[in-house]
Design a protein that fits this description.
The complex is a heterodimer.
Chain A: E1 2-3, E2 12-13, H1 25-37, E3 44-48, H2 51-58, H3 68-74, H4 85-88, E4 90-91, E5 94-95, E6 97-101, E7 107-110, H5 111-116, H6 121-133, H7 138-150, E8 160-161, H8 171-176, E9 182-183, E10 188-191, H9 193-208, H10 221-229, E11 235-237, H11 242-250, H12 257-263, E12 264-267, E13 280-282, E14 285-289, H13 292-295, H14 300-310, H15 313-323, H16 344-357, E15 364-366, H17 373-388, H18 394-409, E16 413-415
Helix pairs in contact in A: 9-17, 9-18, 11-12, 17-18
Chain B: H1 2-46, H2 65-72, H3 74-106, H4 111-126, H5 129-140, H6 147-153, H7 163-166, H8 168-193, H9 197-205, H10 210-221, H11 223-239, H12 242-247, H13 257-265, H14 275-299, H15 302-305
Helix pairs in contact in B: 1-14, 3-4, 3-8, 3-11, 4-8, 8-11, 11-14, 13-14
Classes of the chains: A alpha+beta, B mainly alpha.
C-alpha cells in the first residue's frame, strides 16, 4: 500500500498478496514472522485471531484502539460488525484486529440413516433444536451411533467421525463438558479438571463403543471428506466451509448440493451436560496492522481507514458466498449476484446454507487470545491422542496434562 | 652435517605444514561455517527463550531452563525411546542389513542381472519423496481406498484397517528403510567388487563354502565401509524426519526427537515457534550423535582401520 503524494486517502495503491505457496498456517505464519523481523512485513496481515497475543508481544502489530467504543467512535463503519466478534479481536483490553469472516463447526448428521433407525421426519427436523436446548447430549449422540452400528445401518466404526487431524475443534468437547479455556480478568489460561477428564472419557468411548475407528486420527483429509460426503457416517463434525467443498468436489457424480440437502442435516455441537445448550467454536480470521518495525512503513492510520472502508455489506457478502464463511455484519443478507452470473446456482445454494446456520453464531465461542495458548493446546491434544488410542486412561492423561501444563505455563495457568 | 640436515628437515616440515593448511583451508572453512558454527548457534539459542512471542529482539537468557523443561517433560523419555527404536530397527534391518544382503546377493549373480536388481532398489530413492510416501499412504489406507486391504487382505478375510495407524513403528521403519537400503547397497557393492578375485579363488581352492567366503573373506574386508555406513546412517536417521512428517506428521506416537524439534521450532499447527526450546531439543540430538559416533569408532577399532601403510613408513 502506498500513500498518495497528497497525503490523503483519495488515491491509494494496494497490493493484496495471495500466498499459495504456504500450504499450512505454520508455513504462512513463519513467512510473516521472518518478513516482520526483517522489517519487510506487509502493512496489513491476515491471520487467525489467536496470533494477536503472540504478535502483539513480539511487537509485530499495533493496537487499533483502547476499546471497541473508541474504535467505533473514530470509524463508525465498524458499528455494523457483530458485537461478539470483537471478543476475538481484543487482548488485554485493547482492540488489535478487525474480523474478516467467521464460521461455525456444526455437528453434521445423516438424515437418511436416522430415518432408517426409525426416526420420523419430525424427530429429525427437531434434532437441531433439541441440541440447542441441551436435551440431546453427546451421550445421546454416542448411544444413537452405537445403535446404528449394532443394527448394521452404518458400517462398524462409522457411527461418529470427528476431525481426522489436529485442530482446535476438539476443544469443543472440553467446553461441552463445562471446561473453561480462559479468564479474561486475569489474562490467564484455565483448565477445568473434571471437564478435562469427561472430554478424554468421551474420546475413548467413541472408540470403545465401536462408533469411531481407533485409527481415525491421521486419516488423509481426502478419504475423510469422501466418506462423510457420501453418506457413509451417521454423525460427524466438520466446518461450515466444508459443505460447499463436499457439494462441489466430492459429490459432483452424486448430485452435489441436491444430494447433501436430501441426506445431510446440521446442528450445534451437543452439550455433554443435559440441559446445557449446545455450542460451536468459531475461529475468525482477522486483519491486523503491522508496526513500523515490522513493515518498515508508517501506514498504520491509512491501513485502519482502508479496513473501515472494506467493512461493507457488499464486500462481505461476496467473500462469504465465495468462501462459504459466515459474514461479520449484523445485517448480513448474503445478497446474490445477478442470475446471469456464471456461478449463480452454486452461490444460491451456498446462500441458503449460510442463512440456515447463521443462528449458530449466537452460541459460539472463541479460542483464547493468549500467547501460550498453542502450548496449552498441544499438551491437551497429545494427551487426548494417548487416551483415544488406548495408551493411557482418561484420568491418567488428565493428570499428566495438568502436570505438563503447570510445568510449561507456570503462573499463566489457573487449575480449577 | 647432522645439524644441517635437521635444519633442512625443519624447514621442509614447516613448508609441508603450510602446504597442508593451504590445501585444507577451503574445506576447513566450509566445515567451520556449515558444521561447527550451526552447532555453536544451536547451543547458544538453546539457552534463550526466543520464540514467536519474543521475536528476535526481546528474548532473554534462560540458562538451562529449556533443558530442565525437557527433562521434566513426560514425553521426553517416550520420544527418546521411540527414536532409538526407529534408528536401531531401520539401521539393522534395512540401511545396513538389507544393504549388505543386497550387495552380497547382487554380486553373486550374473552382472547384468545384479545391476538390474540394484536399479530396482534405487527407485524409492529417486522417486520424489512426497510421491513415494503418498503411495504408502494409499497402499495402506482403510477400505475401500487401500490397495493392501482391497486386493490382498480382503480375499483372505482379514478385516480392513488403516495399516499405518495399526502398526505405526513398523510403517516408519519400512518407509525409511526401503529408501535407506540402497545407500548401503551401493557402498557395499563397490567394496565387494574391489576385493581382489584371487582371494575368492584361494578360498575356493581351500574348499570354503559360499557362506564361509562371505564370513571369512567378504565381511572382514568390509569393516571400513560397514563402519562408514553404520555411522553415517545412524546420524542420518537420528536427524531425519521428512518421511515421518509426510506419512503421519507425528500421529500415532511417531513423533521422533528430530520431528519434535522441528515441530516446536519451525513448523506447527498454530504457527507458534519456540526457537529456544527447539534448539535445546536439537542440541540433545547433537550430543547423542557425538556419543554414538564415539561408541562406533571404539567398537570398530578405528585406529586399526586407518594405520599408515607399512610400505610408506620411514
Amino acid at each position: 500500500m502506498r500513500e498518495a503524494p497528497t497525503g490523503e486517502l483519495q488515491r491509494m495503491s494496494i497490493s493484496a498478496v495471495n500466498d499459495p505457496a504456504s500450504l499450512s498456517w505454520g508455513d504462512y505464519k513463519k513467512k510473516f514472522v521472518m518478513a516482520a523481523e526483517a522489517g519487510m512485513g506487509p502493512d496489513i496481515i491476515l491471520s487467525g485471531h489467536e496470533d494477536i497475543a503472540i504478535w502483539a508481544q513480539a511487537g509485530y502489530i499495533v493496537p487499533l484502539a483502547d476499546s471497541v467504543d473508541q474504535l467505533i467512535a473514530h470509524h463508525p463503519e465498524f458499528e455494523a460488525v457483530l458485537d461478539r466478534l470483537w471478543t476475538a479481536c481484543t487482548w488485554r483490553g485493547k482492540v488489535w484486529a478487525v474480523p474478516q469472516d467467521v464460521e461455525c463447526r456444526p455437528l453434521y448428521f445423516s438424515k437418511t440413516k436416522l430415518r432408517e433407525l426409525g426416526w420420523s421426519d419430525e424427530e429429525i427436523d427437531e434434532l437441531p433444536d433439541r441440541i440447542k436446548s441441551g436435551e440431546f447430549t453427546l451421550d445421546d449422540m454416542l448411544a444413537t451411533a452405537e445403535e446404528a452400528v449394532r443394527r448394521g445401518i452404518v458400517a462398524p466404526g462409522h457411527g461418529y467421525w470427528h476431525r481426522p487431524l489436529i485442530g482446535g475443534d476438539f476443544l469443543q468437547f472440553y467446553v461441552a463438558y463445562g471446561g473453561k479455556l480462559y479468564d479474561p480478568e486475569t489474562d490467564k489460561l484455565v483448565i477445568t479438571k473434571w471437564a478435562l477428564i469427561r472430554w478424554y472419557e468421551f474420546q475413548r468411548r467413541c472408540v470403545t463403543t465401536g462408533v469411531t475407528p481407533v485409527d481415525l486420527l491421521g486419516t488423509a483429509w481426502r478419504i475423510w471428506h469422501d466418506t462423510v460426503a457420501h453418506n457413509r457416517v451417521l454423525f460427524w463434525n466438520g466446518g461450515s466451509w466444508h459443505y460447499a467443498d463436499w457439494a462441489e468436489n466430492y459429490l459432483s457424480d452424486a448430485g452435489g448440493a441436491k444430494f447433501l440437502k436430501e441426506h445431510v442435516g446440521y446442528a450445534l455441537i451437543p452439550s455433554g451436560i443435559r440441559g446445557k445448550p449446545g455450542g460451536t467454536l468459531s475461529h475468525p480470521v482477522v486483519y491486523m496492522i503491522t508496526s513500523t518495525n515490522a513493515s518498515g512503513k508508517t501506514h498504520q492510520r491509512l491501513s485502519l481507514r482502508l479496513l473501515a472502508q472494506m467493512t461493507t455489506a457488499a464486500l462481505n457478502d461476496r467473500h462469504a458466498l465465495e468462501s462459504t464463511h459466515l459474514g461479520i455484519l449484523k445485517s448480513q443478507s448474503y445478497r446474490l449476484p445477478a442470475p446471469s452470473h456464471p456461478s449463480f446456482q452454486i452461490l444460491e445454494q451456498r446462500r441458503d446454507f449460510l442463512l440456515d446456520i447463521s443462528y449458530m453464531l449466537r452460541w459460539n465461542y472463541f479460542l483464547p487470545n493468549h500467547a501460550l495458548y498453542p502450548l496449552y493446546f498441544d499438551i491437551l491434544w497429545e494427551n487426548m491422542v494417548m487416551v483415544q488410542t488406548g495408551k493411557t486412561t482418561p484420568e491418567e492423561a488428565a493428570r499428566a496434562a495438568i502436570g505438563e501444563l503447570r510445568a510449561e505455563l507456570g503462573e499463566e495457568l489457573i487449575v480449577e | 652435517m647432522r645439524g644441517d640436515l635437521r635444519k633442512t628437515n625443519t624447514r621442509s616440515g614447516r613448508g609441508d605444514r603450510w602446504n597442508a593448511i593451504g590445501f585444507l583451508f577451503p574445506s576447513l572453512l566450509l566445515v567451520i561455517l556449515f558444521f561447527f558454527l550451526p552447532v555453536i548457534i544451536t547451543f547458544f539459542l538453546s539457552a534463550t527463550n526466543m520464540s514467536s512471542s519474543t521475536g528476535f529482539r526481546n528474548w532473554q537468557w534462560v540458562g538451562l531452563a529449556n533443558y530442565t523443561k525437557i527433562l521434566n517433560s513426560p514425553r521426553a523419555l517416550s520420544r527418546l525411546w521411540l527414536t532409538l527404536q526407529y534408528v536401531a530397527l531401520t539401521l539393522v534391518f534395512f540401511n545396513v542389513g538389507m544393504g549388505l544382503l543386497l550387495a552380497i546377493l547382487t554380486t553373486r549373480i550374473p552382472a547384468r542381472m545384479g545391476t538390474l536388481f540394484r536399479v530396482v532398489w534405487l527407485l524409492p530413492r529417486v522417486t520424489p519423496i512426497v510421491v513415494y510416501v503418498m503411495m504408502w499412504i494409499f497402499l495402506a489406507a482403510d477400505a475401500p481406498y487401500g490397495v493392501i486391504n482391497q486386493l490382498l487382505l480382503e480375499p483372505l478375510g482379514v478385516a480392513p484397517r488403516y495399516w499405518i495407524a495399526a502398526h505405526p513403528l513398523l510403517a516408519i521403519v519400512l518407509v525409511n528403510g526401503y529408501i535407506g537400503a540402497s545407500f548401503g547397497m551401493i557402498i557395499f557393492t563397490s567394496a565387494i567388487q574391489s576385493i581382489p578375485p584371487d582371494l575368492f579363488w584361494a578360498a575356493v581352492v581351500d574348499g570354503a563354502s559360499w557362506w564361509k567366503q562371505i564370513r571369512y573373506v567378504v565381511l572382514p574386508l568390509l569393516r571400513w565401509p560397514l563402519l562408514f555406513v553404520t555411522v553415517y546412517q545412524t546420524l542420518s536417521l537420528l536427524m531425519s524426519f521428512e518421511q515421518i512428517l509426510i506419512l503421519t506428521d507425528g500421529a500415532y506416537n511417531t513423533e521422533v526427537w528430530a520431528l519434535w524439534a522441528y515441530h516446536r521450532a519451525l513448523n506447527n499447527y498454530w504457527g507458534h515457534f519456540q526457537w529456544g526450546f527447539g534448539a535445546a531439543l536439537a542440541a540433545i540430538l547433537v550430543l547423542i550423535g557425538i556419543m554414538l559416533s564415539a561408541l562406533y569408532l571404539r567398537f570398530f577399532r578405528l585406529n586399526t582401520l586407518i594405520q599408515r601403510p607399512q610400505i610408506e613408513s620411514p
